């Protein structure tokens, strides 16, 4: 018998891990050698045993590879850092260990109520990789509902589960035919499905199903571990945030207590709004504006621009309504109120975010600011009464004890021997309500005192004594500024300058006559002095309340036709008359002043004669015409 035809040949084949087909070689050689049937049967039996040994060795090798893969998976779970990496490793191992074309995993989406593709390995179809499956649809739906593995050798033809167009299109584009799916379970709950699939018909044996089930169990453990880690991390972050919040709250409470003590001390020692603003920024950081009810600056600490007026009004109104500070962009607003009265606002631009306790500090500062402003107002009102009583005594007749008046004035910081002007404010500045009258008087008192002067209410009017010599400028400034406060035109007449207590009463009387003259001239809402109105103003000031009507009648009768002619034709007859009388009746000098030819002046005066009558140049008529021209100019000073 040939050696090549002995059973030893099969051992050699096993030793070099030959393919199964090579085990037919010894039998083929034995038959060719013509060995007897007994020897052939012996060789056939040896081949069968050798193939069984080969199959056993192959299963053991495969089992060793599977166990190695499971061991690697467990190692991945033990060092879990990123859930996606672990799941991709499990799906990849499933594909390799089962020799599948594709492996993939779907997970349930509780929020959307469907299942989505979580991980794929070996997939080439983008549509398949982005599939979302309705609950209960496809092979995966059957696996999830039953909680047991399912395998199909031909997915498109299998009617055991519910097909949908979207799933079948994705599976078809991927080219899958045989699919094995096993559940991912956490306890009794299914959270998804792990799949292995081939692009050709293939039966999945029991060992492969068991292997995929093991990998699915590891995947479920990975998912649950990641969830627990995430929950633990979230809990730790919440504890850290809570600890940070507690520390911040404790710190803010300490700041609030320190700020309370500091602002209390400010009130007790008579501090001002500037001190409150400095205290707030020292405690909270940033920059701060303190504004009064009209939006004027009371104090500024740090670099901060005044906010937009409309935005500030809206924010302060919201703060007043809500009774607490409000935020608009980077700025915090706290209304300064006393009862129902709006007294201003604090505007803070902090360096850091404000917590509730920090907001309370800003709100407490607004209360302290309101208290200080009330104190300041009370003191100012008391001082105003003293200053008003002094001015009332100075302009009263007869004047008594000028030395005593000088002494009282010095105590108030007023030098009666320095030049002063007297400004009388018309009744148009004072509304019908007492609060409006008090507001005007309060403004006048503040306006005068800040300039070293005095203010008082007398006979329903307000009078101011202001240092300086520009009576007209002072009257116009008072009329302008008080008009803004009252929201209506204000008329102010002035006189002066006056020096010494003895002359103040007469100066006040002239200021009142100037005020009356402005009304007679139709210049309500303006300011002027007796010097600016001249002798005409003094005359009109003596006329009284009916002067305005008398002036109108006089102007209409005297120069009305000339004024109307200019208004209709756009001519300059009035200017020509003023120039003619101004140069003593010289035609040549009038023409030079008007920058026109002498003939032009002559023609204009002829037109005046036609309008006023031929006797307009006679001494009596000429005086009336000149007086009327002066009154017309005073009524229209800007012309």
TrEMBL record:
Residues 82-233 form the GAF domain. InterPro entries: CdaR-like_regulators (IPR051448), CdaR_GGDEF (IPR041522), GAF (IPR003018), GAF-like_dom_sf (IPR029016), PucR_C-HTH_dom (IPR025736), PucR_C-HTH_sf (IPR042070). Belongs to the CdaR family. This is Helix-turn-helix domain-containing protein. It comes from Micromonospora reichwaldensis.
């Amino acid at each position: 018998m040939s050696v090549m035809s002995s059973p030893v040949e099969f051992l050699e084949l096993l030793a070099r891990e030959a393919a199964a087909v090579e085990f037919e070689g010894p039998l083929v050689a034995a038959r060719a050698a013509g060995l007897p049937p007994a020897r052939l049967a012996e060789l056939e039996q040896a081949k069968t045993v050798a193939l069984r040994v080969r199959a056993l060795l192959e299963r053991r090798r495969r089992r060793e590879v599977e166990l190695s893969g499971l061991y690697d998976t467990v190692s991945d779970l033990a060092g879990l850092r990123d859930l996606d990496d672990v799941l991709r490793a499990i799906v990849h191992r499933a594909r390799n260990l089962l020799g599948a074309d594709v492996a993939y995993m779907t997970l349930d989406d509780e929020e959307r109520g469907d299942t989505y593709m979580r991980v794929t390995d070996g997939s080439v179809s983008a549509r398949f990789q982005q599939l979302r499956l309705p609950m209960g649809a496809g092979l995966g739906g059957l696996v999830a509902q039953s909680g047991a593995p399912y395998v199909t050798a031909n997915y498109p033809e299998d009617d055991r589960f519910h097909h949908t167009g979207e799933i079948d299109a994705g599976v078809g584009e991927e080219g899958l035919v045989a699919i094995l799916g096993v559940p991912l379970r956490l306890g009794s709950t299914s959270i998804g499905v792990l799949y292995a699939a081939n692009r050709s018909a293939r039966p999945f044996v029991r060992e492969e199903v068991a292997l995929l089930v093991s990998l699915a169990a590891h995947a479920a453990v990975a998912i649950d571990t990641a969830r627990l880690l995430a929950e633990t991390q979230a809990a730790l972050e919440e504890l850290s945030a809570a600890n940070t919040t507690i520390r911040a709250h404790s710190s803010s409470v300490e700041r609030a207590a320190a700020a309370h003590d500091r602002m209390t001390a400010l009130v007790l020692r008579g501090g001002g709004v500037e001190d409150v603003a400095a205290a707030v920024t020292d405690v909270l950081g940033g920059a701060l504006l303190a504004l009064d009810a009209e939006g004027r600056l009371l104090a500024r600490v740090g670099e901060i621009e005044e906010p937009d007026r409309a935005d500030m009004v809206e924010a302060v109104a919201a703060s007043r309504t809500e009774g607490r500070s409000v935020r608009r962009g980077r700025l915090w607003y706290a209304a300064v109120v006393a009862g129902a009265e709006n007294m201003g606002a604090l505007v803070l631009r902090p360096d850091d975010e404000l917590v509730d306790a920090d907001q309370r500090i800003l709100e407490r500062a607004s209360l302290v600011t309101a208290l200080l402003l009330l104190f300041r107002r009370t003191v100012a009102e008391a001082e105003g009464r003293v200053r008003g009583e002094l001015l009332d005594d100075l302009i009263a007749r007869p004047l008594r004890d000028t030395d005593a008046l000088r002494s009282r004035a010095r105590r108030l910081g007023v030098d009666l021997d320095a030049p002063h002007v007297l400004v009388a404010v018309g009744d148009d500045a004072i509304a019908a309500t007492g609060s409006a009258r008090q507001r005007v008087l309060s403004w006048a008192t503040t306006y005068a005192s800040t300039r070293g002067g005095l203010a008082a209410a007398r006979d329903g009017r307000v009078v101011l004594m202001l240092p300086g010599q520009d009576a007209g400028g002072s009257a116009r400034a008072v009329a302008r500024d008080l008009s803004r406060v009252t929201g209506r035109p204000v008329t102010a007449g002035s006189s002066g300058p006056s020096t010494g207590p003895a002359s103040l009463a007469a100066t006040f009387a002239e200021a009142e006559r100037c005020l009356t003259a402005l009304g007679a001239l139709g210049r309500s809402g303006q300011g002027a002095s007796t010097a600016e109105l001249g002798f005409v103003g003094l005359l009109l000031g003596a006329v009284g309340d009916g002067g305005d009507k008398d002036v109108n009648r006089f102007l209409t009768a005297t120069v009305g036709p000339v004024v109307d002619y200019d208004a209709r034709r756009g001519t300059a007859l009035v200017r020509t008359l003023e120039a003619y009388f101004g140069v003593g009746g010289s035609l040549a000098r009038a023409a030079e002043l008007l920058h026109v030819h002498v003939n032009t002046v002559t023609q204009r005066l002829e037109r005046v004669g036609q309008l006023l009558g031929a006797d307009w140049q006679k001494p009596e008529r000429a005086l009336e015409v000149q007086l009327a021209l002066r009154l017309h100019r005073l009524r229209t000073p800007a012309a």
